[in-house]
Amino acid sequence: MFWKRNKLNLKSNDNLYEHGNEHLIEIRGVTKTFQTAAGAFPALKNVDLRVDHSEFVAVIGKSGSGKSTLINMIAGIDRPTAGQVYVGDTAVHKLNEGQMAVWRGKNLGIVFQFFQLLPTLTLVENVMLPMDFCNVHKSNEREKIAMHLLDQMEMADHAHKLPSGISGGQQQRVAIARALANDPPILIADEPTGNLDSRTADSVFELFEALVKQGKTILMVTHDRDLAKRVTRSVIIADGEIIEESLARVFAALSSAQLIAATHKADPERYAPGAIIIEQGKPNDHLHVILKGAIEVVKRQADGSDLVVATMRPGQYFGEIEMLSGAPSIATIRAVDDVETVMLDQVAFQKMIGESQTTRAEIDRIAQQRLAENRGAR
Question: On the CB side of 154, how many CA atoms lie within 13 Å of its CA?
Answer without folding.
Answer: 7
